[in-house]
Amino acid sequence: MSKPNDAKKLSKEAFASIKSRLENFPILVECHDRRLKTEYHRQPGIEINVTHNGSGVLEVGEFSCVLTPRHVVLFRGQISHQLKANRRYIYERTVIAYDAGFKSSKYSLPKELFPDDSWIPEDRPLNLQLSLSEYQEFDRLALKLKREQITRRVGWEISCAALLLQISVLLQRNLKASKLKVENATQHLTYITDLVQLSCDFVRNDLSGDLSLTTVAKAFSVRPEHLTRCFTKELGVSFSRYVLLERLQEAKRLLIRKQEVSVIDVALATGFQSHSHFSRKFKSVYLVSPSEYRSSEGSI
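Above: the chain sequence. Below: its structure as tokens.
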């Protein structure tokens, strides 16, 4: 779900620019783009973001997508979004936006040529992680798509649509493989799934308490090494990383919805022992300090 009342922060210039480009031709591609930040904006259609190098955060509605190499974020352009890359490193991404419902007097592409987007959620981003071979194939297709738009040889419009279809199939197969992997793991590792789910509930219900690996493992009568191994296998992150992200997500919520609560009280309420520790961890994930986040988001 997109952020409520976020229209005040939306960049009209960014919307108009992207909308104009999509009206000129309904498939927009920027390969290896190095912009470090964009304004909050929306646009028609679907957006695909693939990170090549560096790290950052892509805010999509109320969701914060942490960007790392070969990470993909797909979402509907109607959800407000903003890129914030880590300035300490070279950040590169490829962005593809397309709008099957475009109307243009210059080009006529049947809607049937565009990918089926029913698998993309209506109100939230979809995050995928490409294997090395999938990433290389995506990059090849995206670069070829860009070349077709630059050279505009005979049939380039149909070629662009065909390349976009190939990219969509690549991403759908990645999603399908990820789901099958989870389903197979669930069939054979029901105990692991239950343990992780119970541990997640335990963490979310006591974010201000002692959530050390040893403490939570003891609560479920398992060895600490086994618990964090289960988290890594099931969720793709270590137990300690999961706890940190849950605490930061709750802290973000409190910073905006509880403006009267001080930053240090937000930190203590979410299990951080000091203002400096909270600020350091918050900035390492979201690239801004808690106070800066509250100041910028609080104006919505």
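The chain has ten helices and eight strands.
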